[in-house]
# Entry
Amino acid sequence: MVRRSHFLRSLLALSAGGLLSSSLLAADVWPSKPIRLIVPFTPGGVTDTSARLIAEQLSKRLGQQVVVDNKPGASGNIGTQMVASAEPDGHTLLLGFDGTLVINPHVFPKVGFDPIKDLAPIGKIGDATLILVS
# Structure
C-alpha cells in the first residue's frame, strides 16, 4: 500500500511536471507571430530607413517577419501611443525617438502615453547629432 501511494504520487508529480514544462515552453516561444515595428514618423526619413535596416536584420535573426508600420502625426505621439496601448507581448515594437519620449510629455497637455510606465526599453540603435548652421 505504501509503495502504491508513493508510485501514484510520483506519477502525478511527473505528469504535473510534464504539463507544467510544456506550458512553460509554449509560453516562452517568442516571437510566435510577425512583429510590428511602429515608426511614429513618415516614410523616407532617417527614423524610417533605420527601422527598415533593423527590421531586415531582426527578421533574419529571429526567423519571423518584422513589418515596419509608419504611423506619423502629432510629433510622434500617435504611433507611440499605439505601441503603449498594444498588448505587452513583445510583438509590437516602437522605434522611439528622444523628442517623442522625453520632450513631448512636457510640451503636449495629453500625449496618450507615459514613457516610463507604458514602455519598456529594449536597446539603443544609434545617435544622431543635430546642428544649426548659417
